[in-house]
Specification:
Layout lengths: L2 E7 L7 E3 L7 E9 L2 E11 L3 E2 L3 H15 L7 E9 L2 E11 L7 E4 H8 L6 H7 L3 H14 L3 E2 L5 E4 L5 E3 L16 H6 L9 E2 L6 H4 L19 H5 L8 H22 L3
Parallel strand pairs: 1-6, 9-12
Antiparallel strand pairs: 2-3, 3-4, 4-5, 4-7, 6-7, 8-10, 10-11
Length: about 270
């Protein structure tokens, strides 16, 4: 079950860990707990002391996770939970993300930008480095996914490398897609005016600041996804989220994902 609709009591969580994204007001609070030998990670949508929790980044994570299930891309599994929480002594009802630690016991994590700087050859670009070490397919899928969801926050630490005690390394499952879709739209008028195909400037460690330009790095002679999006998948992506987001917002999200999928297929000659 990836969506728990019944209100849960998570007022015991400590939300002192903070993450800031450039150009985004507020911050994203995180919490952790270990239960029955498993480590769980929690995060909120945007937060500030004045408004409390606002935005819908947590919902975005669930939608993108469902999209990646359809496309058969390995990713971090997020659960959306209707929860009562307490932040700075203020109780509030909201939605939170929960996920399970994806690292093996013998693995440590390292941001890709740090790993790249340590092991790259002279004048080697990040994408060239990724292909040289055998991770080309992973990064091709990442570039395509970021285009489909208009991900504006793929900095070097939003790509993790997992390294074991023998220094064997692998890319972590794709994660952290909250700053995508309509994350910056808080009013109905903003949603109505949002151009779902606009090539917005993004923070991207791989490639350029243009998601559409980055599609040029993808192969034109083979499919990079095992799965394919179909028009009938709308309900699978959004069908039970009408209690969380208004219909106009959900319709616009589908317009974005389906429109960008068709454009991706056209540009990359995918069938």
């Amino acid at each position: 079950m990836d969506f728990i609709k019944e209100l849960q009591d998570f007022r015991y969580l400590d939300w002192t860990d903070q993450k800031f994204s450039p150009g985004t007001p507020g911050c994203f609070l995180k919490a952790y707990e270990e239960t029955n030998g498993k480590k769980y990670y929690y995060k909120l949508s945007n937060y500030d002391n004045y408004r409390g929790v606002f935005g819908h980044e947590c919902v975005n994570e669930l939608i993108v996770a469902r999209l990646l299930d359809i496309l058969k891309v390995e990713h971090l599994q997020y659960q959306l939970v209707h929860a009562m929480i307490s932040v700075n002594g203020q109780e509030m009802e909201t939605y939170i993300n929960r996920s399970v630690n994806f690292r093996k016991e013998n693995e440590r994590k390292q941001p890709f930008d740090v790993y790249y700087e340590f092991y790259r050859e002279k004048n080697e670009k990040p994408l060239d480095f990724a292909f040289r070490v055998g991770w080309g397919d992973y990064f091709e899928r990442m570039i395509a996914v970021d285009y489909l969801i208009c991900n504006r926050d793929r900095h070097g630490a939003n790509i993790e490398i997992l390294v074991d005690e023998n220094d064997n390394a692998r890319p972590a499952p794709l994660f952290d897609h909250g700053v995508s879709l309509l994350f910056s739209c808080y009013q109905n008028e903003e949603i109505r005016k949002f151009d779902v195909l606009e090539d917005r400037p993004v923070q991207s460690f791989i490639g350029s600041r243009s998601l559409e330009y980055n599609l040029q790095f993808l192969p034109k002679d083979r499919r990079i996804f095992e799965g394919a999006l179909q028009e009938a998948d709308r309900n699978r992506l959004l069908g039970d989220l009408d209690a969380v987001l208004p219909k106009e917002h959900l319709d616009k999200i589908w317009e974005m994902i389906w429109g960008r999928w068709k454009r991706y297929v056209q540009i990359c000659n995918q069938k």
